[in-house]
DNA sequence: AAGCGGAGCAACCGCGTAAGT
DNA sequence: AACTTACGCGGTTGCTCCGCT
């Protein structure tokens, strides 16, 4: 079956996002919520494909994102979850509020891999490097892959991941057995037993798309006029939804002074904290409607 | 000061699949 | 049931920054 490209690539912009584009995307999503990514660029007045918009929003502009390096605890969680889930970054990310799959993937590839190797642990199998012979290692990888592809196992693993972070990994499954030694080694370094539980209500619920918003334009042909009316600071925000710190952060991003904007700047200049604070909040879906 | 190389990270690409018709 | 469409995911790329020579 032929698959059409996600968007007409001709004339679409690629590469780093500008402050102006961020502004447009934020304005649009704050007002309309996340829905129909394919339509977002057109309605928001962006020369990007929907995919690019979604990525920019989920990986960078979302208000509930934490920025900055992963804490030791988060890092430990990533290692733990990776041992159980493999390279399923989005699943791993779902256990780390405010972190994106992309961020975790990058952190894994640039930091954690090295760290584990330094500790003598194979990052793929989570077994000590010295004890693994090549053929065995290969089989281990295959076994892990195999077991992870089964839906039944996945549910078990998911449940396990949610609980084992605070306790020990059950050893009633072969793959768990194979990880035991790894975990022992890691535990020496990270002491996961002391980390607090993550409560379900601490898991952020990213804004849902049920919000074909009531405030959305009556039809798309009015979208350009509609967008003119979007001025972020004028939005009625639920009381206490975003603290002043956070608002100033986004205002920073949206301000006209940020033409040279590289959102990294915001992070580098101490705006991280407000973003991080947001991660503790559960987004109210009503807000988006 | 300039050049080089590695590290880090944002963004892109292509595939799998759920949802819709 | 067959097909289409859009979304989400994971792998990869390429740009920027920074430290070293």
Major β-sheet annotation: none
Please bin the fraction of helical residues: 40-55%
Oligomer: single chain
- Strand percentage: under 5%
Rg from Cα: 22 Å
Give the count of helical stretches: 12
- Content-based structural category: mainly alpha
Verbal overview:
It is a single chain. Helix 4 runs antiparallel to helix 8 (151-164), helix 4 runs antiparallel to helix 9 and helix 11 (244-254) packs antiparallel against helix 12. The chain is elongated and about 55 Å long. Helices cover 52% and strands 0% of the residues. By secondary structure, it is an all-alpha fold. It has helices spanning 19-32, 40-44, 50-61, 72-85, 89-94, 101-118, 134-149, 151-164, 174-190, 223-228, 244-254, 263-278. The longest helix has 18 residues, at 101-118. The model is unreliable at 1-5, 132-247 and 256-289 (pLDDT under 50). The structure holds a DNA duplex (21 and 21 nucleotides). Its main location: nucleus. Residues 9-61, 62-116 form the HTH myb-type domain. One of its GO terms (cellular component) is nucleus. It is found in: Nucleus. It holds the Pfam family Myb_DNA-binding.
